[in-house]
Amino acid sequence: MNLYVLVVYGHAIGMLTTALLALLFESFEMWKIKGVLGVWTNRPKITLPVLSNIFFLGITGMEKLNITRFSSQAKIGGTLVAFAGAAFMTLYKGIVVISFSSPHSAHSSKLRESSEKDWMKGSLLLIVSYVSQAAFYILQAPTIKKYPAPLSLTSLTCLVGTLQAAIVTVIVDHKASSWRLNWDITLLSPIYCGVMIFGVTIYIQTVVVKKRGPVFLTAFRPLGTVIVAIMALLILKEALHLGSILGAVMMFAGLYMVLWGKEKEKGDKPTARDLADQVEQSKSSNVEEISENIVNV
Predict the structure, then answer these.
(1) How many CB atoms lie under 10 A from the CB of residue 149?
(2) Running DSSP on this structure, what letter comes out for residue 267?
(3) What is the dihedral sign for C-alpha 70, 90, 249, 47?
(4) Which of 148, 128, 161 minimizes the C-alpha distance to 51?
(5) Mean pLDDT (the chain, rounded)
(6) Residue ranges of region Disordered (predicted)?
(7) Which residue from 264, 266, 158 is spatially nearest to 205, judged by alpha carbons?
């Protein structure tokens, strides 16, 4: 099945599924929402936690950072360790530790040739994807506060993704036969992709961002690299190298450091600057509330 068409069908099914659930469970929330302006972009793991922290620390100011505090040092150090582990796991192979297939098999040779051929193009596309995804999580944080309906927000996200993917697919693939579905894996794949990946996954991410913040969410993203390595070993019969194991250990250590720093940060006493920022945020929220009341009147 054409991958571009799969993305279109996946987003469309995810949109329909979450829209139906939103009508059933979020009718009251939708009634309370008076109006929101925004654009939700398409979502496509290594650099994502670093990019998100850079955005939050340097641009948005939503994530507080005090280099003199041990909690902030742990968050920075954990982010760097997790990034280093993911990069180490991807770039360094080392000796084969576990392998369920012959290294000279035809399947292994094809995978090796394909990865070497498209390595540079894939790396550039991944960088663009990670930057876009980090920006998506950052925009999601203030959006979910003003639009407290995660199911309908997920449906809107999938709607925009459907439109974008459809435009790209029409430009890239002009064959009408590519859109044909049969009663086989070509039908099951879009359904699973739409319900689980574009529906359930985005919804869970939205809820996590609402409750714990984007940094907490992105701290777990490097685990995807570990899961992919394990699934590739069990399903695709790819070899598990020493670099993958060492990189996974580093990522788990970095994740623990980030989560420990976030937890310890709750017990830190606020500084004078923190109190001043809280006052400014309170004033801004009060001004926005008064403005909304005036407009409604």
Answers:
(1) 22
(2) H
(3) positive
(4) 128
(5) 73
(6) 268-292
(7) 158
- Asked if the structure places residue 290 within a domain, the reply is no
Q: What is the pLDDT of residues 271-284, one digit of tens each?
A: 555 555 555 555 55
Overall domain count for the chain: 1
Is there a domain that residue 144 lies in? yes
Give the mean model confidence (pLDDT) for residues 59-73. Answer: 67
Find the domain containing 258 and state its range.
3-275
Q: Is 166 exposed, middle or buried (0-12, 13-18, 19+ CB in 10 A)?
A: middle
**Residues 75, 76, 82, 86, Cα dihedral to 10°:** 150
Distances (CA, A) of 188 to 19, 214, 231: 20, 32, 20
DSSP string, 130-147: HHHHHHHHHHHHHHHHHS
Cα distance between residue 147 and residue 220, in whole Å: 25
In a domain, 286, yes or no: no
Residues 6+ away with beta carbon under 8 Å from 229 = 89, 240, 244, 248
The C-alpha torsion from 179 through 180 and 186 to 190, rounded to 10°, is 40
**205 and 125 Cβ atoms separated by less than 8 Å:** no
Identify the residue with better confidence: 42 or 166: 166
Cα separation, 260 vs 247, in Å, equals 20
Instruction: Give the predicted TM-score (pTM) of the model.
Output: 0.62
Is 295 inside any structural domain? no
- What sign results for the dihedral spanned by CA atoms 85, 86, 92, 95? positive
